[in-house]
Each structure stands twice: as structure tokens, then as C-alpha cells.
Amino acid sequence: MTRQLIYTGVMMLLAVCTQRVAAQQELTLHNAEGKAMKVALRKALPVSADRVRYTGFKQETLILKAGSIRREGAKPLTCDIMLERDVPIKLRDGVTIYADVFRPTDGKPCPAILAWSPYGKEVGGQMLDDVPMRAGVPMNATSGLEKFEGPDPAYWVAHGYAIVNVDKRGAYMSEGNLLYWGHEDALDGCDVIEWIASRDWCTGKVGMSGNSWLTVSQWFIAAEKPKHLTAIAPWEGFCDHYRESGTRGGIPMPEFPEMIAETFSSAHGMLEDQPRMIVEKPFMCDYWEDKAARVENIDIPAYVVASYTNSVHTHGTFAGYRRMASKEKWLRVHDTQEWFDYYTPENVEDLRKFFDHYLKGIDNGWEKTPKVRLSVLNPGGKDIVGRPENEFPLARTEYHKLYLSATDSTLNDVLPKNTACNTYVSTSADNQITYRYRMDKPTEITGYMKLHLWVSAPDNDDMDLAVRVEKLSKDGKPLPDMTGNVIAATGMMRVSMRQTDPSKSTEAEPYYPFTTEQKLKPGEIVPVEIEIWPMGLLFDKGEILQLTVGAYQPAKADIPFGSAHITIPKEGYTYMPGQKVEMMTIGGNATECADKNEVVKSPATHNSGRHCIYTGGKYDSYLYVPVIPAKNK
């Protein structure tokens, strides 16, 4: 009896302790309607970790001299710059965050550009140096003063702008818990914009710029309509985390978010555990709705940059451009890579023309810029770059159905009369089927594709599918780009999540609510509509369009963020080339993790046994393609 009482008491104590730990691992956030949401938390790396490359907290004001450099090989400053380091900014709830402010030394009020992310105010846990060949961006393309994926202060200050690089809530020495996107994070951004506009060095006009996280932040912050946010420049970034990154096609994909989460540092708080939320909340809910930016609210001028080849950003960038309410909005679609494009000098000049027009009021003819400047990719040939258009998708698009034929693995202009079936084993090495269409004339396919497919899973109640559309040479060979990658438009779908919303779907673009699942019954053959992300491809006569349908497999995300050693001055921030100053080297570790027990692994796929694809007759499986006729002369 005594042992039983002791045992019961111990178990009750453990339960209380467990509840306390659990309570510490959760945060309550609120969406735009004020509804409370419980959010999982995890540890972040300490600022002392090698991987996060923290340069230290120091509140000081410096004049960075023209000709000086931040690091060896970086671009020298072309003018004197006033730098205010670790400037405190108090948010609406009393939390203090810190920013570095770079601005001209002439004392005249100037417009400001805000760069918003948790990556560090300059050197940080993610840098181009960690990426092979710096993604093609030369070391001397920037000064090294820039936040990762953000505007270079040396360039912009020289042209009369202030750059504000923020450690957002919870990042590095900023107080609070480190949040992803959503309503509350966006309100933090609004607070900072209004703080910037109130400074005596600011004209009251604030813009935002940057790539990836810095773009996603722009969708969310601009949707809250801060009074002094005057113009934005989203340069590739999704606007719906669930549909475009975390759970694309209804398949939980925590791999990329997990890789990013492991790089974050916080001295005072914890990290919103979004990878865990991806796995534990696989259906659309209040939490995920809060991670979809309300881009329809955005009505300020915007310069949007997109590409077809980003596995995380492509769909959301085009969607943000299309859905925003701004009448003054421009889209440029490039044909390279997001970081390379962002720091290419002529593109920086183009962005300055946009900001000069809206933040400085300069009459420079920006409004005459074509509303859409389109690239169309031509693997094995020469791309079209910067073709002027009036809209996207193109109004002159002619949609064609290419019907799958299982009997000969082809795509056809007419529906095969006879029904047939292709089968592969989803867990085998050869777990895909290809179908080909040879072009009988030069053809451009640009826009949104859809795959209408009849499928079954005789050995299981679900399927995870991945599809690709790519261009092959006339002799059926792949056409890789300069980096060895094959350019492809992609789509993914968990068949049990196939339900569409007819009120939001179009013939070319299915829309999925992702609120319920429909498991397959034994022997059931069902149609699915698989969204394929935007693409622009040119085909010559005789070249081949290849469709691949196969079993989805998680892809490991393994960019070695934190691996590069970065050497900078210990004091003074910049130095003159050749000057002997005391230096410090930080970084060199891409494997540190705050807590290995909190690492989120990819859940098992819903693939088991055979996958069957049905074509012909009553099984009208087809690829819906956007063919672009030449413009009328």
C-alpha cells in the first residue's frame, strides 16, 4: 500500500513536471481576427554558437570611410556612411529589438529601406559564402554590409537612402520568442516602419526590399497597411506557407523548414517550431490560415521579381503579384537564380529607378516600364529575356489537352479510344512512368499547367504523387542548365487530399481546401487534378515534351549554412585595404543544433505497393498546357 502511494505520488509529480515543460514549449499567438492559437516552441542556438556567426552586441555610432572594406575581397565603400549599431526599437508590447541603421552623413532627411528577417543584421548564420560558388555572386559585387538576401547599404546610402537591418523579435539579442510569419510578426514589422518614419533623419517614406524570407515578410507586413510603407519590392518568396512550402499538394514536407530552423539563434527566447507544426497539423487550420498572407490587402506600388525554377518560391511570387490589389505593380521574370539576379548591377539599378520614383518622387519615367517583363526558358538554346507583356498569365493563351496513352507511353492530341493502364511499384527504384510528345512546330508553353489523372492504389488506401514536365532534345536526351540541373515544372499531390473547391478553381488552376481527406477504397479508381507550378518553355520542331508521373519521395535539404569562415575586423567595422587591424574569424560549423531531440524528421509517405495510371476511353487522363501564339504584329 505504501509503495503504491509512493508510486502514485511520483507519477503525479512527474505529470506536473511534464505539464510545466509542455507549457514552456508552447506559445499563444493571435490571428487577424483575434483568435488564439497554440504554437509549438523549440530551442534556438545560443549566440555563442559558431554556426550563427554572431559579431557581438555593441551600441555605437561609427563613420565608415569611403574606400574602406568590411572583409577581404568585398567591394570598397564609395562614400562615407554613418552606422548606428544595435539601435533599440520598442515594440507595441514593450519588447525591445535591435537594428543597425546605415545612412548618409550629410544630415539631410532621406527615405529608408527596411530588410526584415531573423538571419542577422549583416554577417549571420546564413551567407552566400556557404553556397557553392556563392551562387555565382562575386565577392566584390557587394560590400559585405548587407543582411543575407537584403539590399547592400553601401550602394543605397551612396544614392541617398537609409538601410535598416533588423534582428526581428527573438533573433540574436532581440527580446522575445522568434516567430515565423503571420499576423503578429507582421504587426512587429508595422511598428518598426512607423518607428523609422518618425526619425528626424527620415523623410517619412519607407520601402521594403529583399529576397526569400525578406520577400515573404513583405507580403505579410504590407497586407497590414502600415501608414508609412510607401512601396515594396518582393524578390521571390511564397505567400502561403502551407500550400507552397510546408505541405505542398497535401504532403507534409518539413525538410527545408527544418534545415532553416536549425540555423536560428536567440539569446532571450525560443523558436516557433514550424517544422513540428507541419507534421502535427497536416490539415488547413487557423494556424496555417495565419501563415497565408492576405495579399489582396496590398494596394501600394510593388516591383515583383519571379522565376520558374525555385522549388519553394515560384508559385507564391506569381500568386502574390496576381492577387495584390495594387494598380501600380510590375512583374519581372528572370532566367537565372534569385541571389544572382538580386545582386546583378543592372537589376539593382532598375530597382533604384523604382524606389527613386516612389520614395523620392523623381520623375524618371518608371511608370513607362512594361507591366510584365517575361523570360521564357529554352534549354539547349537561347532564352527569351525581358519580353514586354501586359499581364500574367498571358491573355492570348490557348490551352491544349495532351492525352496520356498507356499503350505506348505517349501524349496525344486526341483521346485514345482504348483504355489501358500503366503500373509501377511505388517503393521500388523504378517508381515512375514517362509520357512523351514530339513538337511538330516551334512552340511556346508559358503559364499554368494541370495534370488530370485517373489513378488507383490496389495495395493501399492512399498515394503520394510527384509529376514533372520538362524539355528533351530531338534525340530524347535531357538538357541540363549550366549547373547540371534539369529545368522542370513540377506538381505534387496526396491523393486523399484531392478534393477541390470549385468556387476558387479554374480549368487551369485547381484550388484545394486541404481540410478533409478521402482515402481510397479497395479497387477504387479516382480522378485527381494536380496543379503544376508556372513555367515558360520554348520548343523547336522535333523537340520533346516529357511528362513524368511517379511516387513522391522526400528530398533532403542540406545547404551547409554556417560552414564558411568569415574574417572581419574585431573593432571599427570596416578598415582600409592593407591596413593592419586586429581581425576575428567566425563560423566554420554547419552541424551545430540546439537540441538533437527536437529535430523534426520527414514523416513516412503514403506510398505502398502498386500505383496504377489509367488512360484512354472513359479514363481521359490529360496534361493541360498553355500554348502561347505569337503576338499580333
Total domain units: 2
CATH class of the largest domain: Alpha Beta
Estimate the mean pLDDT confidence.
Answer: 95
Which fold does the CATH topology of the largest domain refer to? Answer: Rossmann fold
Rg of Cα set = 26 Å
Give the end-to-end Cα distance, rounded to a whole number of Å. Answer: 95 Å
Structure class: alpha+beta
Low-confidence stretches: 1-24
CATH homologous superfamily name of the largest domain? Alpha/Beta hydrolase fold, catalytic domain
Please explain how this structure is put together.
- The protein is of the alpha+beta class and 633 residues long.
- It contains eleven helices and 27 strands.
- It has two domains: 61-369, Alpha/Beta hydrolase fold, catalytic domain (Rossmann fold, 3-Layer(aba) Sandwich), CATH 3.40.50.1820; 398-554 and 604-627, Galactose-binding domain-like (Jelly Rolls, Sandwich).
- Helices cover 18% and strands 29% of the residues.
- The strands form five sheets. An eleven-stranded mixed beta sheet has the order 3-4-5-7-6-8-9-11-12-13-14, with helices on both faces.
- Helix 3 packs across helix 4 (213-223).
- The chain is globular, with a radius of gyration of 26 Å.
- The relative contact order is 0.14.
- Residues 1-24 have low confidence and may be disordered.
